[in-house]
Amino acid sequence: MKKIDRLVCVEDFAQEAKQVLAKNAKDYFTSGADDEITVVQNTEAFSRLLIRPRVLRDVSVRNLSTMILGKSVKVPLGVSPSAFQGLAHSDGECGSAKAVEAIGGIFILSVFATKSYEEIAAAAPNVRRWFQFYMHKDRQVKEKAAQKAGFEAIVLTLDAQSVGNRRSSRRDPLEFPSHLKSLPNATPDAAQKELKIFELHDIMDHGVTWEAVSWLKSISNLPLVVKGIQTVEDAIIAVSHGVDAIFVSNHGGRQVDTAVPTCDILPEIVRTVKGKCEIYVDGGVRRGTDIFKALALGANMVFVGRPIVYGLAVGGTVGATKVMHILRDELDLTMALSGVSNVSELTPSYVNRVPGHSHL
Ligand SMILES: Cc1cc2nc3c(=O)[nH]c(=O)nc-3n(C[C@H](O)[C@H](O)[C@H](O)COP(=O)(O)O)c2cc1C
After folding, report:
1. What is the per-residue pLDDT for 234?
2. Which residue ranges make up the annotated binding site for glyoxylate?
3. What is the pLDDT of residues 64-114, one digit of tens each?
4. pLDDT at 193 over 70
5. Catalytic: which of 201, 251, 357, 359?
């Protein structure tokens, strides 16, 4: 049996990836802010949420497909934008995009990707793809190039106008091999600063406000997703700005340590938004049961960040694709075992909290 055949869950890939990655790449991908409490709690919050399986229902045919921003996906599972995937494997973001194409989800490309929009389009022509960026002082967006390469929505990340305090990367700063010293989708200034990660501070617009969201809507006709919403208050403001989707995220615990785990804030945001726009979530999703729970709590789509990087590190495109298949298959099996034949049937009645921990 090949080594990769023995890896049967995301955690197996995480352990193996930590063996094969160079130390500072491993630190970059795995670390979180400060004491990494939110990194741990994002995952633990899913474990505290328990499933209420139903029995004796016909689940012989399962339908995982749904509509996202007006078009279908085969499964409500996608890949969050994460920078520098070329550090994990030379396939980089092309490998991740192909992995998502294989399951029919949605792939989000980071502005700090090591592959260009055009390379992604060539590698995975049929993947549904969105592009992410931050609000930099120069406000230059390579939006037209992205649109031309088939990217169909903008993801504006709001929770990282300063870089979080990742201790391991401060002790051993990330070093880029010479072949990765270009970031094709960032403006030259941004690319140069991001490559010296902690200078990124200089190019970010620290005074940015919701006006930027209005500005973005005025210059682009693409759907707009705002990523990094962590409170009901901001969800209400986002809706009032006419965004197409709210992406509940704490950046995988890399920004504010002790920020509330995303699966804990999701229910109240869903209740408040009342279907006025779509809602996505990421942070700590490592199992099909986690995806099942997030969908039951009202997320339209669930995303993973680090898992795809672990897949890439272990086996390039093959490893990344296996990770996505594992998650998809685990979701499918959880549905079968819980009496759910269509993702649209998932409601909060399928989940419960451990007594004393929280409430729905
Ligand atoms: C190594 C790494 C790089 C990231 N880079 C970006 C980025 O460029 N843009 C962005 O919006 N989020 C970025 N994120 C946050 C992810 O999009 C996502 O919110 C987070 O990884 C989800 O948590 P998870 O890793 O526990 O699944 C990054 C996360 C990691 C781990």
Report:
1. 98
2. 28, 132, 134, 166, 251, 254
3. 999 999 999 999 999 999 999 999 999 999 999 999 999 999 999 999 999
4. no
5. 251
User: Residue 251 catalytic?
Assistant: yes
Instruction: Give the number of other CB atoms < 10 A from CB of residue 233.
Output: 10
127, 97 in Cβ contact below 8 A?
yes
Q: How many CB atoms lie within 10 A of CB 195?
A: 19
pLDDT of residue 359: 47
Confidence of residue 178 (pLDDT cuts 50, 70, 90): confident
Q: In a mutational test of the pocket of ligand 1, which residue from 30, 36, 111, 251 has the highest number of ligand atoms less than 8 Å from its CB?
A: 251
d(CA 47, CA 44): 5
Q: How far apart are CA 263 and CA 248, in angstroms?
A: 9
Give the Cβ contact number of residue 1 at 10 Å.
5
Look over the chain and give the mean of its residue pLDDT values, rounded to a whole number.
Answer: 94
> Nearest CA to 224 among 232, 212, 209?
212
CA 74 to centroid of ligand 1, rounded, Å: 23
Contacts of 208 (CB under 8 A, 6+ apart): 135, 161
Asked whether the predicted pLDDT for residue 249 surpasses 50, the reply is yes
Q: Please state, in angstroms and rounded to a whole number, the distance separating the CA atoms of residues 154 and 327.
A: 25
Dist CA 134 CA 212 (whole Å): 11
DSSP letter string over 302-354? EEESHHHHHHHHHHHHHHHHHHHHHHHHHHHHHHHHHT-SBGGG--GGGEEEP
The yes or no reply on domain 3-352 and CATH 3.20.20.70 is yes
β pairing state of 77-79 and 106-109 = parallel
| SS3 label, residue 140 | coil
Structure tokens at 313: 């590190």
As a three-state string, the secondary structure of 209-251 is CCHHHHHHHHHCCCCEEEEEECCHHHHHHHHHCCCCEEEECCH
